[in-house]
Amino acid sequence: QVQLVESGGGLVQAGDSLRLSCAASGRSFGGYAMGWFRQAPGKQRELVAAIASSGNTYYVDSVKDRFTISRDNVKNSVFLQMNRLKPEDTAVFYCAARAFLIGYRVGDYVHWGQGTQVTVSS
Q1: 106 near 56, Cβ under 8 Å?
Q2: Looking at the predicted structure, is the pLDDT value of residue 21 above 90?
Q3: Longest pairwise C-alpha distance within the chain
Q4: Which single residue of 6, 17, 35, 71 has CA 20 to 30 Å from 89?
Q5: How many CB atoms are located within 10 Å of the residue 120 CB?
């Protein structure tokens, strides 16, 4: 069983940066693929970025060149560096885990954090 706790959200202005963190408890963190999802009000939850146990990464087109996902297997953590934030990035961001390979759908992930709010003002 993996427990995930996100942190680092907040209220920022357009163009600012935030770094989200997700701390994982449990064993074998290195064997998990980790994803960052976001859900804006009235919208479906979507995958923003993911990193496989191998280190391969995925980004949705809308965040490419602005967001960077990374992981620290010693600290059992995954991070999302978000630069040049836009008002349309406003959402609750969730950390999620699944075994080994990146999944692209909500249903692909077994373990979820409680979410952290990111609000970007114009």
Answers
A1: no
A2: yes
A3: 41
A4: 71
A5: 20
Enter the tokens of residue 103.
Answer: 């999944």
Rounded to whole angstroms, the Cα distance separating 78 from 92 reads: 17
Give the contacts of 18 (CB within 8 A, at least 6 positions apart).
8, 9, 10, 12, 82, 85, 118
Measured between alpha carbons, how far is 38 from 81 in angstroms, rounded to an integer?
14
Tell whether the model's pLDDT for residue 3 goes beyond 90: yes
Model pLDDT for residues 78-122, shown as the tens digit of each residue: 999 999 999 999 999 999 999 989 999 999 999 999 999 999 999
Phi, psi angle pair for 34, to nearest 5°:
-120, 140
Q: Which residues of 9-19 are buried (b: 16+ CB within 10 A; e: fewer)?
A: beebeeeeebe
Instruction: For residue 21, give the amino acid letter.
Output: S
